[in-house]
């Protein structure tokens, strides 16, 4: 890319200290603004949000738990795309989950056991999904949202969607709602994201399984194969939650013909798949493509990319004549890293095609889904998940019937080929200069990563006592970031090399075996999650791309709120081999060899931002000029109650406090530099 000069750029800010303040803290010389708070109206005539639990009509408001977000530029006026715009655009944001206690005046009624009131369930459902809003920069670098933006849009779990790719029309997708298995309703638990050069947004369905009603004892009328699949994906809920996370299936709607609640009931109650909702869980767990510039087009579920607990879906480099790829984490303990390689080589003119979702059909509906296997010597392989190959056949323990079955049950196919179980694969990010792929492995516990169960790619087992009582926390409670270099630097590769870029840890922990990356107090973090390289071209004629690392701390929230760090990483192999001595209960030790990247320095890794109380730092994107970044602040005050919220952010942003009963809201923090320069440099 001729726009990029790979020369040293300095991280031009002073590190932000760890803290537990109820504000978004940024370096001196930076400004925080807040847009798109939970409940903000995004259509004409929708009343302002009262934030007292009485508000309704969330299908026309910003949803809760904003997670990944991405900027899509607009021309100066109208609805046309302008990918270069840094002052007017669309923010596409995921709304992953809800803080149910703040959505109702005194908390929810009968949750989750039921019977749940219809009006409460409607609000909760509509708080999930995706929002698209028009945002722009005005004078004084003030960012505002246009409530009446022509492309403003909510996609909720009730929005009509269509299925594309090999699973479209499969018996596995047939339900009362879609007798031919080609359509569905909405999307849920949208976590991280992806994008395309043709201007569409990709959203991913992560922890969808828990919303469905089905006890683990609910096996009558099911085949052994079905039960294996439901269990593998967690559609069991068990004895503690047999009605699903929020008990929506327990609603008796005023309109008896409505199925918007019943569809969350996955129990077998009819004579066939199209007589009940047993297959409804198969309609979730996909990657979904949305055209943010055309509200008339239904989102398309891209089944060729497999059904997982999809965290994110980030593309590799687009090279003319080469087949593009998307890298995908499946976030659960001991799940895998996947890659989808399109069947079609990239044609540059497709980036500006008028029918964007038709270009999606071209690149995302046929191709090969691979899963990663990491070897101890720093090499690795991409194993294809193709019916009839490598044991993925009718003779497998879970007998596969066809490629649709393989894609619906991609986790089971990945088990067959011997993929490497990871410490919770979250976001992927791709260095726009080198093409190297980064993957956050947020953390794991002792059951998921026991002392005797480490491997080179998931090498640590230790105790990081945390919390007021210093509760023992064995396993890999701080997580790590692994990175891959594709053989031949091409997305089409079936092999790669890898090393571990960073290990999460407190700076006070054992430097030999736990704080392996040697993090200082200006750099230390736990549980990396969001991960993003800012765009390489900007007004400053940039330089090395910045890597932004967001945390969802499992083991460090006794010391600090979650955070955002900026980094300038090197390349795979810039470090070397290393042996870690792990320690389990009773002081028992074991060694594990691994591959570790060069340690960060004060110049290559710094804490840029700390969030408010009980939040997670989620989505991030910058304008193309790099002068504005948008950061998702998710679920502040998630542990509080309506009577005693544990955070009051964003109302607390200015002073650190707000009225004692002011409810917290997820929101997007807009960060700009007072001198007008590129954020981070
Ligand atoms: Fe929704 Fe794995 O984070
Ligand atoms: Ca999240
Ligand atoms: Ca995440
Ligand atoms: Ca997380």
UniProtKB/TrEMBL annotation:
Species of the source: Sphingomonas gei
Superkingdom per UniProt: Bacteria
Compositionally biased tracts (Polar residues): 649-658
Protein name: PhoX family phosphatase
Chain positions covered by the region annotation Disordered: 636-661
